[in-house]
Amino acid sequence: MKKLTIILLGLIFISVVVAQPWREVLAPTYPGGTIFYSGFMASKNVGYIVGNNGIILKTTNGGMTWAKLNSGVTRTLYSVFFLNEQLGFAGGSSRTLLKTTNGGITWDSISVSIIPETGAIYGIYFADSLKGWMIASTSSSGWILSTNDGGTSWKIDTVINKQLYAMHFAKPGKGIVVGKDAGTIWYTKDGIVWNNAPAPNLSQFPYTRTDIRSVFMINENLAIAVGWGSFAAGLQPSIILKTTNGGETWTLMVQSEENRTYDNLYSVWFKDSLNGIAVGGGIMGAIVIKTTDGGNTWVPLGVGIGATLYSGFGTGDTLIGAGSDGVIVRTPDFGNSGELITKIPGATIYSIQILNSGVIYAAGYDGIFLKSKNWGNSWGADFVSSRKATPNVNAIHFLNDDTGFAACSYRLLVRTKNGGESWEILLPDTLATTTHLYGVYFINWNKGFAVGQLATNKDVIYKTLDGGLTWAVRSNIASNAWRAVKFSTPNKGIIVGTKLKALYTVDGGETWNLATFKNVPASLASADLRDVAFLNESVAVAVGNKIILKTTDGGATWNYVDSTTTLLYSVSFANDRVGYAVGSGTILKTTDGGTTWTNIYDSNVIKQSIYSVSADTGGYPWIGCSYSYIYTTAPVVSVKDLNYVLPDYKLYQNYPNPFNPITTIKFSIPEKGDVTIKVFDLLGREVATIVSGQTFEAGEHYVNFRADGLPSGVYLYQLRVNGYSQTRKMIYIK
Where are the beta strands (DSSP E) in 390-539? Predict the structure, then answer.
């Protein structure tokens, strides 16, 4: 077994925070907002991907790694085709056409003035170094063009009064073009004359659109075309069409109910006459479907990726998917397994939490889930998913390094016991497009709350006392939607929501009472509240649309503090004095418990929109932004990995000690076990349970303990696991 040792150097936190410059902690692998639209494998090892802002990537090892090429343009590239590893073309917006003869080292721009400047090139095919075809289109017109001189000059073969999306050839002269609807399918048998195929019968389902986004000719007779699908506009299965006569007629391939997908399919690719794959996605994440019978039946694969895949391509059993958020995925065995090639996808971070141990979690749009184990020095990325869905993560809450919860769109609520390695469903997702969870907070392993929107203008609170096995539901209380829920003690909690509504509880959520607001300007009387943070047992700050509020009685009454020029999404406090509230172009800091605020935003460093903040125990903010950017003013913490010796059973001294009101307890175990940690007073009476029978893997672990509600004094905390027991003292000073 490899032995490693983890040493933290220079970790010193001070209670008084001096001004520190902002530094970038995390950035996406590819520029923020990158979308990949098309890919092509020129050989077993060499391939290319193109996308917006003129991006072109190249692989020389079958898609395991990708290098950025200099395209010389900043326009969106929608199509790419290579005749061999060296000779290739890329097409895009504003009639952009690029050609390379040296494997992408340099690209030459070719004029295509025969089409309008607003036309974009969506498909390219070359039979040899001279003869080729391409399609170009605006939103209302399309053109099929051909060249006989390697792309230097082009002529229009056919004009079509519909938008065109894709083109594919089985061999020279045998091609199909698809576009805006099922009636926009054109085919050629000789490469000269193009014929419009009759629209297939799609009346079995209530389609409101019939866009055909991609086509693949398996041979000169057999082809598959894919396109529109939607559950947001009613249950409209993803369109899959098949032809056996070269495109002359088409049949809708109706799938069994359990295998139907309801999102757009943007790309289809076949490795042989039987085995193919189609990719796409929508508001519930990526979809990948696979066929092994030539396109008659398709089975969805659980890819667990939130991004939409716009391109699927490959060679042999190796498949590549590429799409939004700069995502590239790869499977070496035709979909049986997969790997996220993009190390850090670029998606908006809606929620961020830093723990005392230096573990940082961040999550957000498209189900993105980011984790650092070492104060942000290194990061890993994944997606929060369940079954076949990967919706947005709107809020996360971690009890410790391993156990956390994620509240998602479409009511999905999930829990991890292993730091995000896997997730279990506590509340399943729904197809209802107006049902969402926006906030989550668990007091302990068993007792927790999730809040959000049950339907349009209908709020909802979910409560569990058994770790999510059963739930009590309350809805339509006071708000259109609840946006956040927080607790300062097991009994005292606050919920905030839209239309300047808030609830508070003093009995652990058994009852919720409507809060009152004082001195709020008339212009803000219906302001939406987005987040709330406790400073201590009774004091809390809430923020929202151009408003900051403060309570000193546990949320019963709220006093107007200040207005802002922007929507504030998130608020977090390091202690009862230092806190932060953030929104687009705004990072507000308070050092007096939320009475006064100063904007410390630095536009020279932070270029992205800001959505979330978490303050560490040293008083430093960690902010989550669009495109997976994270910034902080905290000093860099050095982390070195040396020879790690598997720890023995050990309970460490809590830190800080004395503490108020939160402290961190570290323990190590040499083997997997069910851990219980309890707190007792000096008379031996149990006053709190931190962990109760929770399974931990071998290694070092951290848990947090809040002493809110307890009197100042000396307490005992005890670790019990696998027959081992150890007890230490800690001091709580209010």
Answer: 393-398, 404-408, 413-416, 424-427, 436-442, 448-455, 458-464, 472-475, 482-487, 493-497, 501-505, 513-514, 516-518, 529-534
**644 in Cβ contact with 5 (< 8 Å):** yes
Q: How far is CA 560 from the centre of its chain?
A: 34
Write out the E strands in 506-596: 513-514, 516-518, 529-534, 540-551, 557-573, 579-583, 586-590
Amino acid identity of residue 522, one-letter, is A
158 near 143, Cβ under 8 Å? yes
Q: Name the pTM for this structure.
A: 0.83
The predicted structure's pLDDT at residue 48: 99
* Closest residue by Cα to residue 80 from 320, 297, 397: 320
Domains and CATH numbers, the chain: 32-161 (2.120.10.10), 163-302 (2.130.10.10), 345-632 (2.130.10.10), 651-732 (2.60.40.1930)
Q: State pLDDT tens for residues 544-578.
A: 999 999 999 999 999 999 999 999 999 999 999 99
Percent of the chain with pLDDT over 90: 82
Which amino acid would we find at residue 485? V
User: Strand ranges (DSSP E) for 292-347?
Assistant: 299-301, 309-315, 318-323, 328-331, 339-340
Residue 262 has which token pair?
């309801």
For each successive 10 residues of the chain (734 residues), what is the average pLDDT? 27 38 96 97 98 98 95 98 99 98 98 97 99 98 98 98 98 98 98 98 96 99 98 88 98 96 97 98 91 97 92 97 98 88 97 95 98 93 84 97 96 95 92 91 97 96 97 92 98 98 98 97 97 98 98 98 95 97 97 97 96 96 98 79 51 85 83 89 89 79 83 93 86 90
Phi, psi of 367 (to 5 degrees): 75, 15
Q: In angstroms, rounded to a whole number, what is the distance separating the alpha carbons of residues 139 and 180?
A: 9
Phi, psi of 524 (to 5 degrees): -115, 15
C-alpha span between 350 and 609 (Å, rounded) = 11
Give the list of residues 6+ apart from residue 165 with CB closer than 8 angstroms, or none: 122, 123, 137, 178, 179, 180, 211, 212, 213, 214
Query: At residue 87, what is the residue type?
Result: L
Distance CA 233, CA 215 (A): 24
Taken in order 261, 264, 268, 273, the sign of the CA dihedral is positive
Nearest Cα residue to 90 out of 292, 396, 311, 352: 311
DSSP secondary structure letter of residue 257: G
Alpha helices in 487-563 (DSSP H): none
Secondary structure of 36-92 as H, E, C letters? EEEEEECCCCCEEEEEHHHCEEEECCCCCCCEEECCCCCCCEEEEEECCCCCEEEEE
Strand order in 393-398's β-sheet?
A: 393-398, 404-408, 413-416, 424-427
Q: Comparing C-alpha atoms, which of 114, 106, 182, 109 is closest to residue 146?
A: 114
CA distance 587 to 233: 38
Phi, psi at 105, each rounded to 5°: -65, -45
Report whether 154 contacts 114 (CB < 8 A).
yes
Burial letters 138-161, b for 16+ CB under 10 A, else e: eeebbbbbbbeebbeebeeebebe
